[in-house]
Fold this protein.
Amino acid sequence: MKKRILSAAVPFILCFIALVFNCSTTVHAQGITVYQYRRVDPAKMDEFLKRETTYWSKVAQKAIDGGKMTFWAVLAKVGGADELNSPNVLFVNTFPDMDVDLSSVFDAAKVFPDVPMSKMDTYGMSTVISEYYLQAQGWQEVAKVNGDKDFKYIKMNYHNSTDPGSFNAIEIRNWGPFIKAAMDKNQTVQKAWGNAIVLSPTGGSMKFNCLSYDLYPTLQSALLEKWSPDTKFPTTGLDSLQKIAVGPPMTFIYQIVKTATKK
């Protein structure tokens, strides 16, 4: 799987999460992000990602240029449990207005009128496992960030809390400034951090209601998470997270394959 993902990935020239998960923009104060998890047969992964990067990234770019979206990305999961049945691709779509007609957003025929849908289709090559609606809240990135080199892998941390709003607020207030300083001082190889809250679905059998994400330049740095020996981790406020957290977070690593955002 890893070999297929790497061979299909293309170099991206955009700062990835900073534009979709930026809590300071007016767009994001109102925008909603959709996470769609799909299962793709590993034997078809190369072709799937080829079609997404060749065709659908450009369809998304047109929608973004037209103001119907603000961000699009396709991510490929690295490893994982129960790989035969679990999702291995994550789509991230951010909209300024969720009531937009999606058929007009993803209208490939207008962008590629001479290419038959049979050569562009990826929906038929995959199975949608789940879909969630979220809103971004916190964001920090290393000074002088270089999206080409710094944002290659993302670690998704799925948190379950008795009070997700307070959980994220505590992270933003305490962890955010710390990780920003640590990244700028080269105490960690991590290059960015952010968090978001789940809008829907909630309750019932849902295993998470908020999440955080860490971005890295390499797979090894995402796996090992080395810290400088002189790093002083914060304690103020963070002990409150343990009181409202429902167990440890689930964590998965994804490779950032392709993004589209406003130019």
Summary: Confidence is low (pLDDT under 50) at residues 1-29. Residues 45-65 form the longest helix (21 residues). Residues 19 and 145 are 13 Å apart (CA to CA).
